[in-house]
Model the fold of this input.
Amino acid sequence: MKPDEHRIYGKNVAIRGEAVKRFWARQAATAVGTAGTLLGNHGGEDLTAMKNALDRKLFRECTEGKKQRILEFGCGNGRWAELLADVVESYAGIDFAEEFIAKARAVFQGDGRFRFAVGTLTDLPMEFIRVGGRYTMGICSGCVMYLNDGEARKFYESVEALPVEALFFKEKVSTMEQRLTLVDFPSKELQTDYNVVYRMPSEYEEFYRSALPGFRIARKGWEYPEEKGIWAETNTYYWHLVRA
Ligand SMILES: C[S@@+](CC[C@H](N)C(=O)[O-])C[C@H]1O[C@@H](n2cnc3c(N)ncnc32)[C@H](O)[C@@H]1O
Done:
């Protein structure tokens, strides 16, 4: 493949799920601290503190600081659990990377509010989810970008059927008028062949309209400041959805 064939604009092409899984297993094995799920330091500047602060603030604004019963899809080793610990009544986190789940369990050991399970977004561990009863919030942050369109739709359809009152979604998206897909992209920064789909926000909203008809968008927008100038083609977008 020529370099341009790994970086595909506009066209709807499939990423390689096996490579995604291997990538996250490796990240999980080397992650230190709960922020180890965040990628991208863009030339050495450590943006983790800024991302954590904005995530914490935005979530509290959307939920007016109320106590939450949280179900998180793709939780890594518990970055959101840690950021929201003071508003957590109960928290259940799911991730397909076993080492992330083992690390999350170690971090929250002894605090009975927090539970974690190995599971995938496309085949959710229903028994684990059922134990939590009703949830006030489902969080999915930076995970659907690693799913192909058919899998993404399937995930959203299964979320629609869950006992969840509201949703907080966040994805890295394309800032352009077209999607950008990286297929086995030789990333120097991540030292791997990277697979990801940067969809347009409108493409996510089309999923929500068709696969999550029981929800409406209460609030949405770009999360990180554009003036930082480091996100030329992609940036982070969020949606707060509530039961219609
Ligand atoms: C960018 S990290 C974000 C982690 C966390 N949501 C956060 O915001 O800190 C993406 C996470 O999604 C998980 N993931 C990706 N695809 C998944 C899938 N199909 N099923 C379950 N977890 C998945 C990865 O293991 C990783 O923990």
